[in-house]
Design a protein that fits this description.
The complex is a heterodimer of chains A (542) and B (92).
Chain A (H helix, E strand, L loop, with lengths): L1 H33 L2 H8 L10 H15 L5 E5 L8 E6 L5 E6 L15 H10 L6 H23 L16 H14 L1 H14 L1 H4 L2 H7 L3 H8 L19 H10 L5 E7 L7 E6 L12 E5 L5 E5 L4 H14 L5 H31 L9 H30 L7 H26 L2 H17 L1 H18 L4 H22 L5 H5 L33
Chain B lengths: L2 H32 L4 H25 L3 H25 L1
The chains are: A alpha+beta (542), B mainly alpha (92).
Chain lengths: 542, 92
């Protein structure tokens, strides 16, 4: 019975991992990049130079600009700059209810003159919206997260000798090496994997698991959100005009009330109306838990502090804590790199899993020249989803430097480049896998990716050298940091390309030992007793 | 791969996806009702922990002996939770 259970879990792990592996690889890789979202945006918009400006001065400039350009808006949002985000981002809901956004220069208070680029925001949005219309991308990403959770736990159950085998790594042994690597990276970063997967479900829980809101609050779901975030309860406009009080003195009050926290967001309801109110929320960079319920509310006309709320209930802190841990806004440079490396580990775990699935099944056909269609299909998707995605990512950065700065719809062209290159990589993998062999496709795509990543610093120096020089002179490491990371990535791609030299007969010739019972990815593991009628899971070639 | 085996796998997948969701949603509804907390907090906690119900439900669907058992094992506790919730609404 016990072994039957373990085998069933192995089956589940194998097939859940295969069917969602390609999508999860892309989600994990773009999510990993998103830990450096602000830094990537700084690289893609090198014109925006960070200045040391006080929060009070920034908010004054934002207020002035919004007064002139969005005086009739229902709501203003002012995101204050910090050490990672040089821009002063203002957004507002206009009289027609549409949401608009502008980046201001924190020094001069006028809209920044930078090349149009979505930068890190593109990878961040793709990570959970998958470039699909709302809400389908979020639902698909959430489904993938649940499958990831199932694959993780079924993998742990399958992997019997979790600690003993953790110290086992057998290099250059073909299939064994991939499995050892898969297990090592899975166990080493296991707490991160579990945290990141579970928290992603919690982040979207009001969308994907909303029935308890409906049974508790009925149709009036807004009351639920008002209960949670009383400071954001929207009061109706009074309808009479009144001048908005200056915002910077309110920041002074916040500094007294919250000596250890900075204000991150300023929300103004009904600006220019007698019923205006201003809400200050703390910056996410100062504590782990996401606390949108902790706020100071001011009267928008008199400027007096009206209300002070603190999100302190344990259940809200649990959900907010998971949210904050996932986002990592609180992380300093060291922890941010650790997050990045954990993300790379998760991506590698998914990638090695996909490679193992294919490798095990290909071994059966090592002696014949015929590889069944479904194995070729998987190989094609493996190549397109891994090396193809790396090519798409690096093309995005190349497009950012090569597209004319004044091009209309420039940021869309960057995104189009990303998807066109990804599509071309898929076609290339298709042609190579079905007409020749997969190793050639891997080698060619990884070589091209290596070249493009390694030469990105050169491209940056040639096309945007003045910004690079300025930032080095001022001791800012973001721009060179992105370049150096690209170089390191390129070297890794080159190492990968070298592994695919030759025709691969030697690699396939390495025969694995008899599969031990605890092997996670046993292709023939029968799912359960009905399945245990010895039906092979893999279809033999006819 | 026999047709029967394919049907069994398909049935288990649907059971895991739909049946598992049903059980999870009902568990979160009951938790939100019975947790001794302010209602907004109870709802948040119920949603936060609900995926811990989904996980074993999915594992059950692939670990049990037959697809029928998978469905039975999800629908029975779902019915019990639904009844519990309905009775509490009716009595209280």
């Amino acid at each position: 019975m016990k072994e039957g259970f373990r085998q069933a879990m192995a089956w589940l792990h194998t097939w859940a991992g295969l069917t969602f592996g390609w999508l999860l690889f892309a989600i994990f890789l773009t999510g990993t990049l998103s830990y450096f979202k602000e830094e990537i945006t700084q690289w893609t918009q090198p014109e925006i130079v960070p200045h040391q400006v006080s929060a009070a001065a920034s908010v004054d400039r934002a207020q002035q600009w919004l007064q002139q350009n969005a005086g009739d808006a229902r709501r203003w949002f002012i995101n204050l700059p910090d050490e990672r985000t040089p821009e002063l981002a203002v957004s507002w809901t206009n009289a027609k209810g549409r949401f608009e956004r502008k980046s201001l220069d924190s020094l001069s208070g006028v809209p920044v003159q930078a090349r149009e680029s979505s930068g890190g925001e593109f990878f961040y949005r793709f990570h959970f919206q998958l470039q699909m219309p709302y809400p389908w991308g979020r639902w698909l990403a959430s489904l993938a997260a649940m499958v990831m959770f199932v694959a993780l736990v079924s993998g742990i159950i399958t992997h019997k000798k979790i600690f003993k085998e953790f110290f086992t790594f057998r290099p250059r042994k073909g299939q064994r090496t991939w499995l050892d690597g898969h297990n090592a990276v899975a166990v080493l970063v296991l707490p991160f994997h579990l945290m990141i997967t579970y928290s992603s479900l919690v982040i979207f829980m009001t969308m994907i698991m909303p029935l308890s809101i409906l049974t508790t609050y009925g149709k009036d779901t807004q009351t639920f959100f008002d209960d949670l975030f009383p400071a954001f309860k929207s009061a109706p406009a009074a309808g009479t005009h009144a001048t908005l009080a200056p915002l910077s003195p309110m920041l002074e009050v916040a500094r007294e009330k919250w000596p250890n926290e900075r204000v991150g967001l300023v929300t103004v309801n009904n600006p220019g109306d007698a019923g205006a109110s201003v809400t200050l929320t703390a910056s996410g960079a100062d504590h782990i838990a996401h606390q949108p319920g902790t706020a100071l509310t001011f009267d928008g006309v008199t400027g007096e502090l009206k209300n002070e709320t603190r999100m302190s209930a344990a259940s809200l802190l649990l959900a907010g804590g998971l949210y904050g841990l996932h986002m990592g806004h609180f992380a300093g440079p060291f922890l941010r790199w650790l997050y990045f490396l954990c993300g790379v580990g998760g991506t590698a775990m998914i990638g090695t899993g996909l490679v193992i699935w294919l490798g095990k099944r290909r071994l059966k056909h090592a002696r014949s020249d015929v590889i069944p269609f479904e194995l070729r299909l998987v190989e094609m998707l493996n190549i397109a989803s891994m090396s193809g995605l790396m090519l798409a990512i690096v093309s995005f950065f190349w497009a950012n430097r090569l597209l004319p700065v004044g091009l209309a719809g420039r940021s869309d062209w960057e995104v189009k480049t990303f998807f066109c290159v990804w599509g071309l990589a898929l076609l290339h993998a298709l042609a190579r896998v079905f007409l020749r062999d997969g190793r050639t496709a891997w080698r060619e795509q990884l070589t091209l990716a290596a070249l493009l990543f390694c030469s990105l610093p050169v491209l940056d120096a040639v096309t945007a050298g003045s910004y690079l020089r300025l930032s080095l002179e001022q001791g800012r490491w973001v721009l060179p940091g992105v370049d150096l990371t690209a170089l390191a990535t390129g070297l890794f791609m080159a190492w990968g390309a070298l592994r695919f030299r030759g025709d691969g007969k030697a690699a396939l010739a390495v025969r694995p030992t008899t599969p031990s019972t605890g092997e996670p990815l046993s292709p023939d593991a029968p799912g359960d007793r009905v399945i245990a009628t010895r039906t092979p899971i893999v279809q033999e070639p006819r | 791969m026999s047709v029967r085996w394919r049907m069994s796998v398909a049935s288990r997948v649907v059971a895991a996806l739909i049946g598992g969701y049903l059980l999870t949603a009902l568990a979160s509804i009951c938790l939100a009702r019975f947790l001794p907390l302010v209602r907004a907090e109870a709802v948040v906690l119920a949603m936060t922990v609900s995926f811990l119900v989904y996980l074993p439900a999915v594992l059950w669907c692939f670990a049990c002996r037959s697809a029928w058992r998978a469905w039975f094992g999800l629908l029975l506790p779902s019915a019990a939770l639904a009844a519990l919730y309905a009775v509490s609404r009716w009595l209280l």
